[in-house]
Design brief:
Blueprint lengths: L2 E3 L5 E7 L4 E5 L21 E5 L22 H11 L4 E6 L2 H11 L4 E7 L12 H9 L7 H12 L19 H8 L1 H4 L2 H7 L7 H8 L6 E6 L7 H8 L5 E6 L6 H4 L1 H14 L2
Helix pairs in contact: 1-2, 2-8, 3-4
Amino acid sequence: MPTFTAPDGTELAYHQRGEGAPLIVLPGGAMRASAYLGDLGGLTAHRRLVLLDLRGTGDSAVPADPATYRCDRQVDDVEALRAHLGLDRVDLLAHSAGGNLATLYAARRPERVSSLALIAATPWAVGLPVTVEDRLTAARLREDEPWFADAYPAFEAAWTGRGPFDDAMMPFFYGRWDDTAHAHMATEEEQVNEEASTVYGSAGAYDPPATRAALAELSAPVLVYAGELDTGPTPELARRAAGLFPDARFTVQPGGGHFPWLDDPEWFVRRVLDFLTGSR
């Protein structure tokens, strides 16, 4: 397991899977170990994934200062990984909450980004939060699913502050609530650093006006990728986020949820690979 040292002295780990040109991958959660990303639906057959365990997650060390879990303060970790790999410019893919870290990196280090793929990325960093009504409206589109009657009350209670975030609501995060989704969900609790997750998007993490202004000058191509059934970001919110980039490609995976590579691996890999190939 390779490691490198962040500017503050924290030892960070990353995992390499597959062959080909490197693709740096940032996980979501927020602050979930990269293991849940697997091989991203088989993308490893085409690219060498460099999956970063963010500080305090997976095989990376816990930092001396918990305040460094804040999203904007981890931008230097991504830059340190780029330098460690000896890359002048990077292809960068990020999932969910990790999309904010990737977005801030692109805003701060645009000259280092060859391409940016934002997969089901929640666009907090650009001032586009997912509202409770967004989530509930999207969830109600699945009322014909056999599990809906049991899952929706838990989902509604969790997002309105009347109940916990628990397993009962999890079917809404997947386009297909099958054995693959069950197995994937079962790993979540052991992979997330809850303390770090709370700090990640805390006060001061984001400056949307400044970030939007910086992104308006970004020359690298950007893929904004949404799942049709995702409750956050919804396809409409992802479309609005795509409009903030000068060179954005927006796509919606039919039947995709928040982990689209699980719902239709072939569709996912084909679209992502088409983007990465076309951006080179």
